[in-house]
């Protein structure tokens, strides 16, 4: 039986499955790194809530930079990007609320706040960089999809 567009859609080739598996692995790695960053943000929120507000802004910017750009990336990684954005927005909102509640609880020097923000931004940057590198590595490792042989259907 010849390979038609219909059968190709129903049964992906081995190369396509490998590409999808690689992309899923990279997306899971990026999600794992983001979760680790969120845990670090939670610990930092207890130590310095003002730094968390700045970190939430940084996470939002970094997530915006990492959003998929091509149609293929959007199809493969779009749902993960949405989950990351959703989690980052929720974390930023929670951090902002915690910061507002804690601001009056203890005095904060300008230098201490800068040091905390710098440390937090370094951690967030490292986590986002690792996630981006994993996604790029998956894209480079994934084989190009095999063209589908299309056949014309005869009119009845």
UniProtKB/TrEMBL annotation:
Keywords: Membrane, Transmembrane, Transmembrane helix. The chain crosses the membrane at residues 50-67. Residues 147-156 have a biased composition (Basic residues). Residues 136-156 are annotated as: Disordered. This is DUF883 domain-containing protein. The lineage of its organism: Bacteria, Pseudomonadati, Pseudomonadota, Alphaproteobacteria, Sphingomonadales.
């Amino acid at each position: 039986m010849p390979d038609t567009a219909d059968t190709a859609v129903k049964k992906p080739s081995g190369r396509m499955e490998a590409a999808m598996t690689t992309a899923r692995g990279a997306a899971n790695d990026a999600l794992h790194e983001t979760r680790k960053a969120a845990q670090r943000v939670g610990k930092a929120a207890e130590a310095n809530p003002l730094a968390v507000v700045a970190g939430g802004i940084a996470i939002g910017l970094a997530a915006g930079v990492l959003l998929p750009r091509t149609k293929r990336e959007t199809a493969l990684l779009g749902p993960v990007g949405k989950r990351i954005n959703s989690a980052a927005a929720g974390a930023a909102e929670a951090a902002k609320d915690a910061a507002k509640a804690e601001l009056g609880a203890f005095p904060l020097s300008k230098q201490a706040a800068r040091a905390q923000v710098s440390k937090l931004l370094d951690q967030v940057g490292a986590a986002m960089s690792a996630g981006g590198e994993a996604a790029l590595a998956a894209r480079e490792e994934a084989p190009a999809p095999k063209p589908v042989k299309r056949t014309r259907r005869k009119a009845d």
